[in-house]
Amino acid sequence: MSLSNTLPALILVSSLLPGLAIFLLREDSHVLRTSLNMFGAIAKVILVGVMVWGVFHAQSFETRWTLAPGLDLVLSADALSVLFVALSTGLWLLTTVYAIGYLEGTPHRSRFFGFFSLCVTATVGLAMAGNLFTFVVFYELLTLATYPLVAHKGTPAAVRGARIYLAYTLSGGLLLLIGAVWLRTIAGPVDFVEGGALSDLSGLDPTALRWIFALLIIGLGVKAALVPLHGWLPQAMVAPAPVSSLLHAVAVVKAGAFGIVRVVYDVYGVELAGTLQLLPVLGAVAAITIIYGSIKALSQDHLKKRLAYSTVSQVSYIALGTAILGPLATIGGVVHLVHQGIMKITLFFAAGNYAENLGIHKVSEMDGVGRRMPGTTLAFTIAALGMIGIPPVAGFVSKWYLGLGAVEAGVAHWVLPVLIASSLLNAAYFLPILYRAWFKVAPTAWPAEQVRGGRLEMPGALLWPPVVTAALALAIGLFAGAPYSPLEWTQLIAAREYGL
Amino acid sequence: MLPEYIVFGLTGIGLFVIGLRAALVQAAALARILAINVAGTGIFLVFVTLAYRGHDAAPDPVPHALVLTGIVVAVSATALALALVRRLPATPGEDGDD
Amino acid sequence: MTNLLVWPVLVPLLGGLATLLAPRLANPLGLACSLATLGAAAALVVVFADQGPMILALGGWAPGLGIALRADGLSVALLAMSSLVGLAAGVYATGYFADPDVRGRFWSLWLLLSAALHALLLSGDLFNLYVTLELLALVAVALTALGGGRAALEAALRYLTIGLLGSLVFLLGVTLLYAGYGTLDLVGLAGALRPEPVAWVALSLLTVGLLIKSALFPLHFWLPPAHANAPAPVSAVLSALVVKAAFYMVLRLWFDVFDPALTQAAANLLGVLGGAAVLWGSWRALRAERLKLLAAYSTVAQLGYLFMFLPLLLALPPGPSRDVAFGALVLLALSHGFAKSALFLGAGVIQQRAGHDRIADLGGTARALPVTTFVLALAGVALIGLPPSGTFLAKWQLLASAIETGQWLWLPIVGIGTLLAGAYCFRVLGHAFGPSDRVGAALAVGGEEIPALLLAITATVVLGLGAAGLWEFLALGTAFDGGSR
Hints:
The structure holds 3 protein chains of 3 kinds.
Chain A: H1 3-23, H2 30-56, E1 62-68, E2 71-76, H3 79-102, H4 109-128, H5 132-150, H6 156-187, H7 206-223, H8 232-235, H9 241-250, H10 252-275, H11 279-298, H12 303-323, H13 327-358, H14 369-372, H15 374-388, H16 394-409, H17 412-439, H18 460-478, H19 486-497
Antiparallel strand pairs in A: 1-2
Chain B: H1 4-25, H2 29-50, H3 61-87
Helix pairs in contact in B: 1-2, 2-3
Chain C: H1 7-21, H2 26-51, E1 54-57, E2 68-71, H3 73-96, H4 100-122, H5 126-144, H6 150-181, H7 186-192, H8 197-213, H9 223-229, H10 232-257, H11 264-287, H12 291-315, H13 320-354, H14 365-368, H15 370-384, H16 390-404, H17 410-433, H18 450-465, H19 468-474
Antiparallel strand pairs in C: 1-2
């Protein structure tokens, strides 16, 4: 028993136990539930801090538990997993604060926060998965934990959205499972190894490897919302705002994108993936998704749906960066995992605030909202500008590295047009919102205005999370070169994957 | 003339087949129960025949013991089946729940 | 210490008689006996883990003439599950039957069923297996009829008639084997058996008889009405344990006795029937209008998975890879037993609280009965085969063995079966989460929800995370064939 073999398990337990305890709470034990939530979230932040520090100083962490002969549940920490763990832990803390404020006074909060904690537990487990088997386990657990959150409201639309979500994710999980079993059968336990687990094995049948790659990527592509597997995402918009934030920014779509990164770099390895000619297809799918999502976003008047299609588009930057061979593109793709998360969660927090405070659900209802809710709208504006790729917000850094990577890999002729077209489209669906919010005249009455006292436009628990994440999005763009910044960390990851 | 044990054995098999066929074909519960008993008797006959070890030797006791047990089982099963059949007409039908 | 083998049979047998004589004390007596049976099973597990396989010649008569009880990893594991599920179903039943007469009858029958089942699991000779199987079926039929409704009586009668046909075919096979080899002791038979016509015909007869009893597609038609119309605690036991008994015998006979006479083609046939059962059972479960009928069809499907293991086991060379697959098969049987009994008990809670178990009218259940809804969800996780359930690991191994032996056919079947299972489980949950047109249902956690919850947690968490021990347990050897498996 030492920290090096218990820390990953402790990080898991820090949200699992509070989650299970919350299930048992009575609906009206508000203080206890909030304390448990905050205790878990803060404990996890501290534990992850220890792990980041350790990994930076080349300490290794691994928890291993044998489930069946040859099937070990392995939680470990490498540079890539730490990046994702830190992202989900940090954003979970903020989302918890936001959700406590958002759900105040609504029914079934014990159930909600219980599953909320399980959802983060699954995400963190998936981030720390040390082999493909463990990844599959947590990938499926994530599906299970998020289903009740999507169905939470219990309205027919919510139940329907949840059913569609489930149909997609269970099918995806099944393909991933078959791919993983197949790979396990021909290649033995597939531990995630920087440089690729399969790179040491020669003599495997290339046809089988290509089939397995297709199964794995399709399975992951469902959660990552690659076109044409993205259909569940707009439907899942019926969920409460904190859930949408979590689904889009941290948990579900990121699980898919993170899985793609893992499979390409740590299972196949860049070399083998290149030899087998696997990446051009992935790149093409990612490019199509980027453009398609942006075009669909243009025509959505419903704010959350517009953001949902924007997610479809933006998450595929990660897949695109992965599909382009070369360390610079890798940096661009992987760093976008963090950047997109922080920016997108800001947008969803803000959308939730508009709906909660003024009953605004549609873009066409947002005229003059900037003056009425300046803090929220400022946060929204920073995040939207970042999504377009305007410096110095974080999104610019991702796109810059993707562009450089494309030039480095000699695929600039098709990647750069995709990046430029996508940025123009992003501008086309975000700038009109900003224009309406800041420059149009507010209507005489908002759709459903909440009357409340207080100095702030919103209760603090709802206002501060988007403000903090917007500031963060700005800061990690401005100080991208600082030590421990996502960019610095990603450069470390790229260096290790390419053996530089 | 065939040896007796072959006659007994074939009769047993014949009874089994007749009983089995009737059990599958007959719709009435009582007829089915009777048919199953006929088939069972056929098997017991075969089993008892197996105990034969020639005219001079004592028969193998094991099949006898087994058939006795088998008969007890068959009687109990028949009793249970008859009890169910008897209760059926007296029970009113209902819809949905039990 | 081998006398330990007697207690899991004797305790419930005496308990059954006692509750028959003192029906007023049925609840305390029954619970005490169930606990004592669990204790006996636990002792058996502990001693087995320490000493390995056990044999007990009853009355000192040598096997062949006398009766021998034998215990190996497979029988002890199933026996442990049976006593746990039995205790949970019994605890639930104490509050389920309002009429003290019915309750008394339930306890005597249920304890007798326990005794028969445990005797079956520990039997070392074929005729004993026949008698215990028959006893088990008779008691199961009586339990099915316990509810007393017309549907239940009709289902019970059909169950009995079909079951009797099955046992007759089985008995003919037994007779043939005795004619061919002059012994019915399993170990004796295993040693004498040759790949020759008499063995093949006998195996076919034995197997067909058992297929009827274990409700393998297309011989499953009697199961759904019987399991759906029996009282909930009875359905739990029927689905979790009684059909497994017949499957256990298939497994025992195929791999411990008939191993030299087996052919891949025969195993493939059973596998294909199993695959068809998975598809058909899951499809019918999806179309079912009532929760208990859904659970019953789901049992048809889950039994199909068990049979799909047979062609894989036979194709794998004896040794580590076959042992791993065999362990997965046992794990699947155990997980299904716990999950399905949890599902039936949960359905019973809903049926008694809401007055019905129509799936379309389950709206508001998540609000009124959160614990039971949670039970349905957990049981669903195990039935679909999602982590962290034991079924997930078993299914992983099933797929791995299929790929390893090149039997690709099972992959799409498992895939479709999994998705259908997802559809039928989440269909129930979708309705349960949905809005209610009823107002003011009781909110408190009832004590009657606890047994189901514990069973569901066992299936989904305990068996999943603690599965590794099962393989070690099974590796301790077998008492049935001198260790050739």
